[in-house]
Amino acid sequence: MTSWARANSRAAIVSMLKITGRTRLAIASHPFFQRLPAICHTNYISMIPNLRMNTCIIYCPICHGNMRTRHPNSPPLQTVKRMTTTPNPSTSPAGEAAALRERLSRLSAASLRINESMELDTVLQDVLDSARSLAGARYGVLDVLDDAGQEGMMLASGIAADVFHGLREMPGWEEIYAYLGGLPGPLRVADFGGHIRALGLPAFLPPVPVCAFLAVPILRLGRVMGHLYLSHSEPGETFSAGDEELLAMFAAQAALVIANARRHQEERRARARLETLINTSPVGVVVLDAGAGRPVSFNREALRIVERLNRPGQPPETLLNGLTIRRADGREEELADMPLARLMSAGETVRAEEMTLLAPDGRSVAVLINGSPIPAGAGESGGGGGVESYVVTLQDLTELEELGRLRAEFLELVSRQLRTPLAAVRGAVATLLEAGAELEPAETGQFHAIIRDQSERMRRLIGDLLDVARIETGTLTVSPAPLEVAELVEGARQRFLSRGGRRGLEIEVDLAPGLPPVLADGQRMALALAHLLARVAAGLPLGSSTVRVRAAREGLYAAISLAAQGAADLSG
Questions:
Q1: Which 3 state secondary structure label does DSSP give 88?
Q2: Contacts for 468 with CB less than 8 Å, ≥ 6 apart
Q3: I want to staple 491 with a disulfide (CB 3.0 to 4.6 A). Which of 258, 364, 435, 526 is the partner?
Q4: Could you tell me the CA-to-CA distances from 222 to 130, 184, 252, 314, 417 in Å, in that order?
């Protein structure tokens, strides 16, 4: 009978023992056991004792059929000196209960630790450090996946930063990482390097010694959120089945903690984005406590509106005490008597109410108010009724009112300017119709010239109105081209004179030497300068006067200024 047959017959009468603790360490250190493939190492090794010779036979049923093929140079059977052990109290029911309590205590302490913070980075590091402490590992790595299942973040514990970087730059790391990421469950081996070689993967040559290895996936709702990788650095140190079970339970709790930390981080980011959006809004936003009616928060525009009504150094919350509201129909009411206050308590909505806010010292701001309630328990299932807070938006109407006033003044000015040439044209036409036959040819020509000039004036005014409309709609076309400043100033002077410039007004031009050509729309720039000349001339006393036009270089630009005695400087 061959040695293998003898081993099989003897092994058949001995039940397979699951080796743990010191027994496993002693067997794993034997040279024969170290030559076994890593996939069969520890769980189902049988020891067949020979009491007379004080020895035992190591038998691996997993490798039995292919033992000689895998290890052709090794003898089929190996023996080691039988270990003399003392009774282990942990094998008794009381000892097992004590060990279980100790494991649960460590697990509870680790769970409490990872729940102390909601910051994602802190939580991840606590999870890794706690897992390493639970298993007594020398090194630990935590791989966290993003929502798409790709590598999102990788942390290390017990490894220096430069060494960890070298680990990720190790040849063959991508293949090994892909293998570990695709594991369907935990992996526990006593020799990770041998395990990698047995799989035919690239040689595992880390910058730090890695012997025993334990990998546990972090699962939540059937989805892999990451992996915990732990290792020992000394030969003979192994992870037990208890370590694997403990880490699996811890990973399940860590998955929930990581998910909560991620949700907290996403909520903070969403809140920061919302706050940034609200603070950059041109509309004031105020959040009011519906019960007390006091403001809870303001955005920047709301603070700007309040500061226009507040006394220096006065908190914005105190303004509501003496604030008076003037409604669009002219009625004035105290804030407490306003429908807005009643609507807040009733949880109703306010839409587009035009009001004027009046401070006790008489300062005022016209605003357009909108208000919406936030129900108590909003966003929570089963939230109770009632209103928790109220959001009020304030749109400052001051600029709109000023724009309306300027528009009205402009239309009034244009109407006056249009009436003048229209009256001249109407008078000339009436004279020609009533006394055309009695007029001399020269007089008839003068009336025709009046009609022509005043019609041209009206055409220019209508063109100006169209330009204003194009400016407001953003469709005004500009055609810049290089031109000399002297030509630009002369064009403005000619345009001013052709539009009925004041007689007796002398225009002096003072140009700095060496002015380069400027890039501008000559026609529109000349029109703008002609308007400036008209404004200066309108402020001068009657009689002969002088307007001085100066041009000088200022950096990349040419500055053109107009000045006259008795009028303020106007620059273009």
A1: coil
A2: 410
A3: 526
A4: 23, 11, 11, 57, 80
Q: How far apart are CA 230 and CA 190, in angstroms?
A: 12
Q: What is the pLDDT of residue 63?
A: 40
Give me the residue label for tokens 């008209």. Answer: 534
Q: Do both 453 and 492 map to the same domain?
A: no
Q: Which helix (H) or strand (E) holds 365?
A: strand 364-375
- Name the residue among 344, 389, 398 with its Cα closest to residue 368: 398
Which position has the higher pLDDT, 105 or 209? 209
Question: Which CATH number is 487's domain given?
Answer: 3.30.565.10
Please, are residues 454 and 462 in contact by the beta-carbon 8 Å criterion? no
Q: Are residues 46 and 109 in the same domain?
A: no
pLDDT category at 190 given cuts 50, 70, 90 is very high
Burial of residue 463, with CB atoms counted within 10 A of its CB: 0-12 exposed, 13-18 middle, 19 or more buried: exposed
Is a pLDDT exceeding 90 seen at residue 75? no
Q: Which of 366, 396, 426 is the last residue of a domain?
A: 396
Q: Quick check: is 125 in a domain? A: yes
Whether residues 22 and 167 fall in one domain: no
Query: What band does 377 get if pLDDT is binned at 50, 70 and 90?
Result: low
Judgement on whether residues 259 and 320 belong to the same structural domain of the protein: no
Q: Is residue 275, in this structure, part of any structural domain at all?
A: no
Q: What is the mean pLDDT of residues 85-107?
A: 64
Q: Show which of 362, 396, 430 is a domain's final residue.
A: 396
| Domain assignment of residue 278, yes or no | no
Three-class secondary structure assignment of 185-228: CCEEECCHHHHHHHCCCCCCCCCCCCCCEEEEEEEECCEEEEEE
pLDDT at 307 over 60: yes
522 and 464 share a domain?
Answer: no
Residue range 202-227, pLDDT digits in tens = 888 888 889 999 999 998 888 888 99
Query: Cα(first)–Cα(last) distance of the chain, in Å?
Result: 115
Report how far apart, in Å, the C-alpha atoms of 2 and of each of 7, 12, 33, 51, 247 are: 9, 15, 21, 22, 44
CB contact at 8 A, 536 and 567: yes
pLDDT of 431 above 90: no
- Give the domain range for residue 78: 3-87
- The string of pLDDT tens digits covering residues 326-365 is 877 777 777 656 555 555 555 567 788 788 888 877 788 8
Residues 139 and 153 in one domain: yes
Pair of tokens at residue 485: 């400043």
Residue 235 sits in the same domain as residue 361 = no
Same domain for 259 and 301, yes or no, is no
